[in-house]
């Protein structure tokens, strides 16, 4: 093992500890020791229990709500900065608060921009993340951002399924670019759902643009939250004559009645990554681990090598 590779140290945030262990195993290292002191009111304090002076360190943790997950990442970044780490890379498989990437009405924050600035202020010198909700979030950072795509996991899996009459679908207009990229790689047709919302997470109307008759449809999206859009889209497509409907979503937020909706839906399968730990098991949910992808990119970053070979699209 080269000195450069041994020089890096990996640490995991508590909310992503299982994924951090898998990444460390794929990387060929052990996770460093971090202890947490917790006060009676819920305040917590991380402490690195080994020297990181002059080292490159990777801190692994998704920042999905609650805000404690983000706060934990920030405190660990600050602790690493004050412990004189040489480079501090925040490895954030799921970048939370990313849906607030613009002002969509007056007097609201651009939360994703604020989070980017806070991460840098806390001490992050580099960000590694996957399937941001909006590509422009990369521009919110002054530090380098390695934006990975779960398509490098999903495309090989879809090819293994060898579905005949494959059609890629986007559950909304905003995801059409992603759907077209998958379709180009898989040489398949594309359909798009047009939806109108009453309010966040509540769909009032959905229409389908394209023909799914006799097709095996795969919906693609960056995240699944309440699963209302996916299950509604699956119902519409089956009503329009689809043979089957699957969905691939990078980040399995799965809040509210999501698990119940998925179990009762016409979705044949929901394929996700382990960027966020599942709250419960489901016979319809298949998890593909992103640990190998992150470990490979982290090694390349540590050794100052190109990471472009890790992108399918």
Please, what is the average pLDDT? 93
Question: What fraction, in percent, of the residue positions are helical?
Answer: 25-40%
| CATH topology heading of the largest domain | Rossmann fold
Extended strand count = 14
Question: What Rg do the Cα atoms give?
Answer: 20 Å
State the helix count.
9
Distance between the termini: 31 Å
Identify the CATH class of the largest domain. Alpha Beta
Task: Note down, in words, how this protein is organized.
A 7-stranded mixed sheet has the order 10-9-8-11-12-13-14, with helices on both faces. Strands 1-4-5-6-7 form a 5-stranded parallel sheet, with helices on both faces. By secondary structure, the protein is an alpha/beta fold. The chain has helices spanning 3-7, 17-27, 67-82, 111-122, 151-161, 176-186, 228-239, 258-263, 291-302; strands spanning 9-12, 34-38, 44-48, 56-60, 87-92, 126-130, 145-148, 166-170, 189-199, 202-209, 216-224, 244-252, 269-273, 285-288. It folds into 2 domains: 9-148, Rossmann fold; 151-289, Rossmann fold (3-Layer(aba) Sandwich). It is globular, with a radius of gyration of 20 Å. It contains 9 helices and 14 strands. Helix 2 packs across helix 9.
């Amino acid at each position: 093992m080269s000195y450069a590779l041994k020089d890096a140290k990996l640490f995991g945030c508590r909310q992503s500890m299982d994924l951090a262990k898998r990444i460390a195993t794929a990387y060929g290292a052990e996770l460093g020791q971090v202890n947490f002191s917790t006060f009676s009111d819920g305040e917590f304090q991380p402490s690195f229990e080994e020297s990181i002076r002059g080292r490159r360190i990777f801190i692994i943790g998704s920042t999905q709500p609650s805000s404690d997950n983000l706060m934990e990442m920030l405190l660990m970044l600050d602790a690493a900065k004050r412990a004189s780490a040489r480079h501090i890379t925040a490895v954030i498989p799921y970048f939370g608060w990313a849906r607030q990437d613009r002002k969509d009405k007056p007097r609201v924050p651009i939360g994703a921009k604020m989070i980017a600035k806070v991460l840098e202020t806390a001490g992050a010198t580099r960000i590694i993340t996957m399937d941001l909700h909006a590509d422009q979030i990369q521009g919110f950072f002054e530090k380098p951002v390695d934006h990975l795509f779960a398509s490098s996991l999903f495309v090989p899996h879809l090819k293994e399924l060898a579905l005949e009459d494959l059609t890629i679908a986007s559950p909304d207009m905003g995801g059409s670019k992603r759907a077209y990229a998958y379709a180009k790689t898989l040489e398949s047709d594309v359909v798009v759902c047009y939806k109108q919302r009453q309010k966040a997470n509540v769909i009032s109307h959905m229409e389908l643009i394209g023909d799914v008759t006799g097709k095996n449809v795969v919906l693609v999206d960056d995240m699944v939250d309440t699963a209302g859009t996916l299950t509604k889209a699956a119902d519409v497509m089956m009503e329009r004559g689809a043979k089957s409907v699957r969905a691939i979503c990078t980040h399995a937020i799965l809040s509210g009645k999501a698990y119940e909706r998925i179990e009762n839906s016409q979705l044949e399968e929901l394929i996700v990554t382990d960027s966020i730990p599942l709250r419960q098991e489901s016979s319809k949910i298949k998890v593909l681990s992103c640990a190998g992808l992150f470990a490979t990119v982290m090694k390349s970053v540590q050794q100052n090598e190109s990471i472009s070979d890790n992108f399918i699209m």
